[in-house]
Amino acid sequence: MPPPVHTPMDPRSTADPASSSTSTHSTTTTSTLSSSSLRKRVLSIDTSSRDSRGAPSRERERESKAQEEERAMALERQAAATEEEAERERDVEAAVPMSPAGRLFRETNFNCYIVAVIGLGARVDVAAARAGLEATLVRHSRFCSVQVSDEASKRAKPRWVRTTVNLDDHLIFPELDPTAMSANPDQVIEDYMSTLSTQPMDHSRPLWEFHVLDFPTSEAAATVAVRMHHSLGDGVSLLSLLIACTRSAADPARLPALPPAPARRDGPVYARRRPPLSEGILALATWVLSYLVLALHTLVDVACFVATSLFLRDARTPLMGTEGVEFRRKRFVHCTLSLDDVKLTVNDVLVGVTSAALSRYYFRKTSDTDSEKRARPKHIRVRSALLVNIRKTPGLHALAEMMNSSKNNIVRWGNLIGYIVLPFRIAMLDDPLEYIRQGKRTVDRKKNSLEAIFTYWSGNLIVKLFGIKTAAALCHGMLANTTLSFSSMVGPAEKVEFYGHPIEYIAPSVYGHPHALTVHYQSYMNIIKLVLAVDDAQFPDAHQLLNDFAESLRLIRQAASAKS
C-alpha cells in the first residue's frame, strides 16, 4: 500500500494570531506587522510549496515504478501459466496408454505392489541418495508420471501423464521406537514391512516410494525398503531398472556385470532348429514331430489354464489362502542360500527344493496323530502361478541411457507378462534327490509349451472384447484356484553400489494378489535370497516354513555329496 500523501497546509491557517489583534490599534503598526507577517507567510508558503511539490512527485514516481513492476510480474505469471497449461496439454496429447496388464493391476481385487528390502553396507547419505534419484530414476517416464483416466467416458483407457516429481513425497523417514530398534532391529524391519502392506499409495503422485530405515541390523548397516505399484512394470523390468541405477563396487564408473547369457535364445521355438537336408528324412521327420508335441503340450496347458480360471481348484491344504486373502496383512521373511549348494540347473534345483520344503511343512502341520497320518494321501499335487516375462529384458546400458536422456521411446516398457500353471508334488520321499529329478521333469515339460505366450495374447484379446473387469475376474479366479505364487530372478554377479551405498542383499516380493503364500528366489553375487510373503494370520510360523527350505536344501546337498 503506498504511503499516505500529506496535503500542504494553507498559508492563512499558519498566520500569527497576534496580527489580527494588533491591526485594530494602529494602521502603521498593522501595515508593518502585515508586511512582516506577509513576508513570513511567503517564506512559509515558498518553503511549504517547494516541499509539497517534491514529495508527491517522488511518491508518484515510486507508485508508477511499483505499478510497472507489478504489471511486468503479472505478465510473467500469465506467460508461465500459459506455458504450463500448454505443456500440460502437450503431455496429455503425448500420454502413453496403459497396457492391459497395467490396467489389470489397478483393479480392486488385484491391486498389486512390488516391494524390495535392500540391505546397505553403510549408513544412508541422504544428500547423495537424493542427487542419485534425481539424476536417474526420476527421469524415467513411468517414475515421473501419474495415472489419468477420463471418468466421464467408460471407454477411455487410463493413460500415463508426466508430472513434476517432489522427492519429499517419495523419500519417507519413519519414526520408529528406539528401544525396539536396539533390542531387535531385524524384527522392527519385518514388522514395518508388514504394516506397509496394509497402507495404500496416493495415486495423485507417481506410484513409488523409498522408505529409509537408517539403523543397523544383523545383515546390513542400514536398510531401504522400496515400494512400487505393479502397474509401473513387471518385476523383471523394475528390478532391472533398479540395477541400472547401481554401479560396480569394484569400479564405480561401470555398470554391474550380470551372469552370462545363454549361448542361444531360450524357449520352445528357438530350441528347434531345422536340420539340414543332408541329415536325411528321419531327422526332418523328428523336427516336425517336435512341433506337433509342442502344439499338443500347449493345447493341454491352455485347456488346464482355462479350466483353472473357471472352476478347477486345488485341494484344500494349510498352504492355500481363503477368500479375501488379497486384502489382508502380509509378512515378508527371508533367508540366504548359497549358490555353492546348487550344482545343477538353477531352476531345476529351486523347483525341487520348493517341493521338498512344502512337503516338510505340510506333513508337519497335518501329522497330529498316527491315524490321521495313515489316512491322509501319500501324494498331493498343488499348483503355483508363475509370471513369465515374454519379451527380452532391456539391457542395463539401454535402461541407463533411457534415464540419462529422459526419453521414453528408447526401450519398450510395460507389463508384457504371461502366466504358467506350475505344479508341485507334495510327498515324503526317501531320496531327497528325487525332488530335484521331479523338478527337472516339471521344468522341462513347461519349457516345451507356449502357455505363457497364449495367456498373454488371450488376456489382451479378452480385455478388448469384454473389458478389463472380465479379464480381472478370470485372472483372479485362476490365482484363487491355485495354491501359491512362484518366481525367480537373476541379479548382478558382482557386488554393486546404490548411489555410493554398497548393497549387501536384495529381497524383493509382491503382495495384493489372492495367494496366502508367495515364494521368490533372487540371486545376487554368489548367493540366493529366498523371500516368502505370507498371510500374517494364516502363517504365524512363517520362520519355521523358512527353515524348512534351508533344511531341505541341506538334505539335498548332503545326498548329492554322498552319491558323488
TrEMBL record:
<protein>
    <submittedName>
        <fullName>Uncharacterized protein</fullName>
    </submittedName>
</protein>
<dbReference type="InterPro" id="IPR023213">
    <property type="entry name" value="CAT-like_dom_sf"/>
</dbReference>
<dbReference type="Pfam" id="PF03007">
    <property type="entry name" value="WS_DGAT_cat"/>
</dbReference>
<dbReference type="InterPro" id="IPR004255">
    <property type="entry name" value="O-acyltransferase_WSD1_N"/>
</dbReference>
<dbReference type="GO" id="GO:0005789">
    <property type="term" value="C:endoplasmic reticulum membrane"/>
</dbReference>
<dbReference type="InterPro" id="IPR045034">
    <property type="entry name" value="O-acyltransferase_WSD1-like"/>
</dbReference>
<feature type="compositionally biased region" description="Basic and acidic residues">
    <location>
        <begin position="48"/>
        <end position="74"/>
    </location>
</feature>
<comment type="pathway">
    <text>Glycerolipid metabolism; triacylglycerol biosynthesis.</text>
</comment>
<comment type="pathway">
    <text>Lipid metabolism.</text>
</comment>
<keyword id="KW-0256">Endoplasmic reticulum</keyword>
<feature type="compositionally biased region" description="Low complexity">
    <location>
        <begin position="19"/>
        <end position="37"/>
    </location>
</feature>
<feature type="region of interest" description="Disordered">
    <location>
        <begin position="1"/>
        <end position="91"/>
    </location>
</feature>
<dbReference type="InterPro" id="IPR009721">
    <property type="entry name" value="O-acyltransferase_WSD1_C"/>
</dbReference>
<feature type="domain" description="O-acyltransferase WSD1 C-terminal">
    <location>
        <begin position="413"/>
        <end position="556"/>
    </location>
</feature>
<comment type="similarity">
    <text>In the N-terminal section; belongs to the long-chain O-acyltransferase family.</text>
</comment>
<dbReference type="GO" id="GO:0019432">
    <property type="term" value="P:triglyceride biosynthetic process"/>
</dbReference>
<keyword id="KW-0808">Transferase</keyword>
<dbReference type="GO" id="GO:0047196">
    <property type="term" value="F:long-chain-alcohol O-fatty-acyltransferase activity"/>
</dbReference>
<dbReference type="GO" id="GO:0005886">
    <property type="term" value="C:plasma membrane"/>
</dbReference>
<dbReference type="GO" id="GO:0050734">
    <property type="term" value="F:hydroxycinnamoyltransferase activity"/>
</dbReference>
<dbReference type="Pfam" id="PF06974">
    <property type="entry name" value="WS_DGAT_C"/>
</dbReference>
<feature type="domain" description="O-acyltransferase WSD1-like N-terminal">
    <location>
        <begin position="128"/>
        <end position="344"/>
    </location>
</feature>
<keyword id="KW-0012">Acyltransferase</keyword>
<dbReference type="GO" id="GO:0004144">
    <property type="term" value="F:diacylglycerol O-acyltransferase activity"/>
</dbReference>
